[in-house]
Write a structure and sequence with these properties.
globular, alpha+beta, eight-stranded mixed beta sheet, 283 residues
């Protein structure tokens, strides 16, 4: 049968249907507001965790969860798509004096703006483009640095256990975890800090199949509720040997927060140049 030249595999999503949030603890909420809201131009969720113990920050359909504790750092880089890189640079320059004394810095790169957060987390801020599909604001990828010789084993885990499509380069594995979203595992010879407890949250369609494998291997770290469980160790599916550590908050498609509307403000809206009707940004 003719396909009219379409690559039908290009739209295969796999079992992981969405990467929803990344959770890193922080020591100070006011500094986090300065960086994530004023600097990056993201939006504090107005409905959930509105006190001083935690902050949820919306970026399109994804979030940062930022509980107030110690510092957690992703060993790698978080990719963001933002609506306008020129105004991003203006905002970053504006908050620079307020973030003096932290690890905050930023620079223009060839195809993105590279940003280091106040506590050392790395971000690559991109403009929307074909490589991100129809995403105009969001979190298209998280890249994790892994020890040499581990990327293919990590890829096998995601493909076999979570049934996610995986592609490889010589030193990396890219795992599809939603529309226009991926986890990237890139090998490095550099020293990788010890795992500090950061986690990600994903929604999966076949909720029980992965659970059965993890349960047999004694890898379930928390049976959260009927619609969620957690695991931490990524292992070789054949041998059980641990390859990487990353806590996953695994949610079913019956989880009540699936598809929750996330408010995103138009970060280009200003009091001085105010335009009626443009307060909200629609991804």
């Amino acid at each position: 049968m003719e396909t009219n030249g379409y690559d039908r595999k290009a739209d295969d999503l796999g079992n992981v249907v969405a990467l929803e949030h990344v959770n890193v603890t922080i020591p100070d909420q006011s500094t986090a507001v300065t960086f994530y809201v004023l600097g990056l131009g993201l939006t504090r969720d107005p409905y959930m965790n509105v006190g001083l113990n935690n902050m949820w920050v919306n970026v399109g359909g994804q979030q940062f969860h930022l509980p107030t504790r110690g510092v957690q750092k992703i060993p790698g880089c978080i990719g963001l798509v933002l609506s306008d890189l020129e105004t991003l640079k203006q905002r970053l320059a504006t908050v620079q004096p307020e973030l003096k004394g932290t690890r905050f810095k930023w620079r223009e790169a060839e195809d993105h703006v590279a940003v280091t957060g106040p506590w050392g987390n790395q971000f690559r801020c991109h403009a929307a483009g074909p490589e991100f599909g129809d995403m105009t604001i969001g979190m298209p990828y998280i890249e994790f640095l892994t020890p040499p010789g581990t990327a293919r084993t990590i890829g096998k885990f995601y493909k076999s256990v979570l049934q996610a499509p995986v592609s490889y380069k010589s030193d990396s594995a890219r795992v599809k975890v939603g529309r226009n979203q991926s986890l990237v595992f890139t090998e490095t010879d550099k020293k990788i800090p010890a795992y500090d407890g950061h986690h990600i949250a994903v929604y999966i369609a076949n909720f029980s199949r992965a659970h059965q494998f993890l349960l047999r291997r004694d890898l379930i770290m928390e049976e959260s509720n009927a619609h969620q469980y957690r695991f931490r160790d990524i292992v070789d599916p054949a041998t059980g040997e641990k390859a990487f550590t990353l806590e996953h908050e695994v949610r079913s498609l019956y989880h009540p927060m699936l598809g929750r509307t996330m408010v995103n403000r138009n970060a280009e809206q200003t009091q001085r140049g105010y335009t009626p009707g443009r307060d909200v940004y629609y991804p």
